[in-house]
Design a protein that fits this description.
9 helices, two-stranded antiparallel ribbon, extended, Integrase, 3-stranded antiparallel sheet, about 250 residues, mainly alpha, 5 strands, 3 domains
Amino acid sequence: MTTGRTNDNLNHFAAWVNRYCDSHGRHDALPAVSGRPFKLHTAQFRRTLAWFIARRPGGTIAGALQYRHHSIQVFEGYAGTSDSGFRAEVESEQALARGEHLLTVIDAHEHTRMAGPAAAEAARRLEEFEQRTRFQGTVVLDDRRLRRIMNRDDPAIYPGTYITCVHDSAKALCERARQGAFEGLGDHPQCQPLACRNVALTRENTDAWRGEIELVEQQLARRPPLPPLLQNRLLGRKQQIEDFLATTQELS
């Protein structure tokens, strides 16, 4: 679809919304500007897109590349300057989402079934977190209260695709202090999940690692075969993951 066609569709949709509001007596129609319908076009959504990119794991780096900015700081300024509180707001939203996820983990009792060197610490922190989020016998569901709890008593547990980081700066191999930089998986490039003592594994994390092993096996089974050097590297990677999974199960 061309940009012009997209712009036409945006304005057709806006007109439909206003007709719908008129016919149903609603008062939340799109307001006119200087007595005329506001004309939408795709360029107006660049910052909206930047906002959503920035909220994804590693989003500020991806956004800087996508928008061809010279630095991450320029992208952050584009998505919302530091004075506007953009970074703080993104980090607050990430913390809230993480808190909601941790409550789901607690509700399903997944924290009692974790494996890995930090599994016991994760269970202890989440049990304390559960106590802090209880109000008159029920777990808090209000976003504002959960946000306050995360600001005051963040358990510093960061769920990811491959690992759950139970952060302890004294043990962290990533050499990054807790500054809202943890976004899961090691979703930042300095994460060393196969060696770090801050790692705990949920069932989903273990399944993700097994999926990695399957991908390696598929590559090794390719015909014609891969070059010997690449085969050796893949075999080494597969062995590393298998040893890692075996070790984490022994520690659980």
